[in-house]
Each structure stands twice: as C-alpha cells, then as structure tokens.
Specification:
By secondary structure, the chain is an alpha+beta fold. 30% of the residues lie in helices and 37% in strands.
C-alpha cells in the first residue's frame, strides 16, 4: 500500500511553489507528483517519504490535506504493459479515478500510481493477474 497526499491549492501564480517550499522546509522528499486544476482551485497529489509529517506540516501552514490509499503497480518499460493493467481492472469492473507515475526509481521499473473506486478489489485482481504491486517501503 502507498499513501498519497491530496493538497487543495488555489489557482494563482506560485501556489504550487508554496506547497513544495513548505515540504522542502520540513525536509520532506517528493517521490511522485501530479496536479489537476479547475478554474478556481487545484488538487496536488503527492507521494512523499513521510506522509504523516508532511500532512501535519502542511495543515499547520493552512493547507487542506487528505491522505488516501493508492495502488502502486510496477510495470516493466515495455509496449502495452499499461494497456494490459488497465484491461485487467476494466475486466474486473474497477473504475480507475486517475493514474500517474513515478518519474525516477534508480534503474528499477516505473511504478504507476492508481486510484480506483474499490481499492481492495483492484489490489486483489491485479495480484491475481500477476501484476507486481509495491508498497511504500519499496519506493
């Protein structure tokens, strides 16, 4: 299991910088990041090296932060692997809410971060299909 932070930020120049600066100040390492915006606010999703410390520090700075469980699926860098994993989830009738990947893993296969409508079911069917799942300790 991987824990992810969702940080709500207003849309204005430098708003994402405020979050990353706070994490830098708290000596938190960002391992993966994705951002989604709407006209009024954005959601910054992060996987960090110390989720609780990051949440506490950001909350103290006035940010609204939630922690969620996400799945980390290790996929070899080969054509069609992402498509195959998404096919497994679709066949299991699991709705993928969003997906993003880790950028750097020091000579190891990329990890796709997946948020679904049913974490336990998604985890089970991916394992049964032979998809390697990783936890926070393997990042």
């Amino acid at each position: 299991m991987i824990k992810q932070l969702s940080v709500f930020v207003e849309n204005y120049p430098g708003s994402l910088l405020e979050v990353t600066s706070a994490l830098t100040e708290a000596h938190i390492n960002i391992r993966a990041v994705a951002s989604l915006d709407t006209p009024d606010f954005g959601i910054l999703r992060l996987v960090v090296d110390d989720t609780k410390k990051a949440k506490d520090f950001l909350t103290a700075k006035g940010f609204v932060v939630r922690i969620q469980k996400v799945i980390g699926a290790e996929l070899k860098d080969e054509k069609g692997n992402l498509n195959q994993m998404l096919g497994i989830l679709a066949a299991g009738r699991v709705d993928v809410k969003y997906i993003y990947s880790f950028v750097i893993r020091e000579d190891r296969a990329p990890v796709m971060v997946v948020q679904t409508d049913d974490y336990e079911k998604a985890e089970r069917i991916l394992k049964e299909a032979g998809v390697k799942l990783v936890g926070e300790d393997e990042l």
